[in-house]
Amino acid sequence: MNNKNEPVYSHQVMGEPKSFPKMLILDIPNNDYLKNTIQSGIWFLKSTNNGPEDFGLVFHLLGDDIDFELPEYVEFILKFPSSCKHVISHPKIADDTLVFKTYAVHLLKLKCIMNDSFNLPHFQKFQPSSQFTKLQSLQQFSITTSGVEMCDDDVVDETWSSLYDKEIGLPEKKEQILQNDVLPLEPMKEVKSLKDHVQIVTLGTGSALPTIHRNVLSNLVRIPYVDDETKEVKFKSILLDGGENTLGSLIRNFGHNNEEQLKQIFDELELIFLSHLHADHHLGIISVITAWLEHNKHNNRKLHLIIPWQFNKFMTEWFRLELLTQNLNADRIVYMSCEQFIQNPRPELKQLKMKEFEIKCDDGISSDTVPKIKFRPLSEESMQKIFKDLKVQLIQTTRAIHCYWAYSVSMTFCLDQKETFKLSFSGDTRPNLKFVEIGHDSDLLIHEASLEDDLIEEALAKKHTTVVEAIKVAELMNCPKVILTHFSARFSEKHTFIESNEDYEKASQKMKAYLGRTVNNIFELRHNSRFTFDDMEICYANDLMIIRYNDVNVQKAQFAAINELSTSEDSEKQKVKDEKIMLKKSEKREEKRVQRLAMNRKRKHSAEQDPNNK
């Protein structure tokens, strides 16, 4: 009723009914689902539940083995109204288009500073298809009563040339930068040692989560060796950890020229090492293994894995499902536990059935109540064969100071009959004297440096290493070259570089005093290192960086230029802002330090009062 007590009917207050075209999302993962999907008539039924409207937009999400150009599939598409738009997602028509323009510009600037250390990542210019609409990032569809309209205005339509013109604007260097888009994988022509051929590719250099400038951790190291028959220098590749989308980083970095270099990398890849079970280190490994199996399905090569035993359990269960739909042979994977290379290996924990687990969980499960399985090392004969195949002289692991079942590794490779190359990789850890021991006299150290030195309390709490600590580990190891990586998202774009021996000594003394007599204060150690800070070559890794062993030092001369990439336009305001942030960090750090020391005193007091300790 209105204010005049007159009845109000629906047709008086409602507009005309509007009818919108329907949208359908078809997900057909493989051929097993194809026949039932395209022969079903349910898509074209009109009822109260399905709605009387015609379809105006259909997304076809198709698996690799689906041929959308088959007459049967084309006939299925033609059954929809002629006005209906079809968007197809399939590797056959997927463009490797640029998505993150901010990162692309940042990398282009880095390449202008260090031209011989970066490829221009592989991507294709967006080209709309006339026959089918291809699924693209940032596509938009507007569904109105009059139909469906597609808008590609936000799709990044750039090339490296257009990005250079807009963002760099140095025409005299353009040809030099853009022509050097793919760095060679071949052995170098003039070298003093086989070690100089070693090539390190820091595919991902971030921690925890991907950011705009850094993906999570992954390192590819190409190890040279002299072929016994041809006497030519060839390469074996190893992967050290593989966070989310490691395969995507490999494709971007080596996918040029019909994936010519990518195929070479998969020909060379023979070993994957996984340091621990955090997602930012392992989430991309399965896809790399699957791609390796697909690439090498017509040969008899083996892929060796040194991984925590839990990941082998997961991998076995995963491939039971994935390989049901793929003609791949997972038996070609050679599994080795990280415990294989430790003097006193720990037993594995027995897997429990769900009911048994629930009972133990209700009773308060702990690692002490879970049955253990005695570790069974591989036979000496098997290990000798693996070492021969990998051209490895020695592999040693040690338990990292991070989480349970976390490891660091040192590997010594045979380059020829006389020369070796020792590589050490920290994984995630606090500075570790046992790692220093197994990594002593390494030729190259790849060490995490998650946090800058003023965040030492966070490093202690989360069991990570700061920059000055990582450099100190290299010094203790007598290692001449160190690559720092696994940076926190706080430093995704810039670093506070330690540029001189004076800065290093100052930072070391400050850290030594701060840590005091805590366990593993590596700055308290007395040692006779062959290398001072000025002797060492230190590189702060960036995503997709490609660097030869004899070029680790080239970044040092460019520290100032690299920092300029992220300098604020209003430097004075930024400086004031940074000072306020530093003050807050200092106050927070001191608060955490007081809490930590109080907790240590409480534990010590409790231990002294415990009669069992007397």
UniProtKB/TrEMBL annotation:
Entry's EC annotation: 3.1.26.11
Region (Disordered): 568-614
Claim: tRNA processing is one of the keywords in the record: yes
Coiled-coil blocks: none
GO cellular component entries: mitochondrion
PANTHER family assigned to the protein according to its UniProt record, in alphabetical order: ZINC PHOSPHODIESTERASE ELAC PROTEIN 2
UniProt entry keywords in alphabetical sequence: Endonuclease, Hydrolase, Metal-binding, Nuclease, tRNA processing, Zinc
Source species: Metschnikowia bicuspidata var. bicuspidata NRRL YB-4993
EC class: hydrolase
InterPro entries, sorted: RibonucZ/Hydroxyglut_hydro, RNZ2-like
Phosphoprotein as UniProt keyword: no
Name the record gives this protein: ribonuclease Z
Family the UniProt entry places it in: Belongs to the RNase Z family.
MF-aspect GO terms: 3'-tRNA processing endoribonuclease activity; metal ion binding
Ranges of Basic and acidic residues composition bias in the record: 570-594
Gene Ontology BP annotations: mitochondrial tRNA 3'-end processing
Required cofactor(s): Zn(2+)
Catalytic reaction(s) noted: Endonucleolytic cleavage of RNA, removing extra 3' nucleotides from tRNA precursor, generating 3' termini of tRNAs. A 3'-hydroxy group is left at the tRNA terminus and a 5'-phosphoryl group is left at the trailer molecule
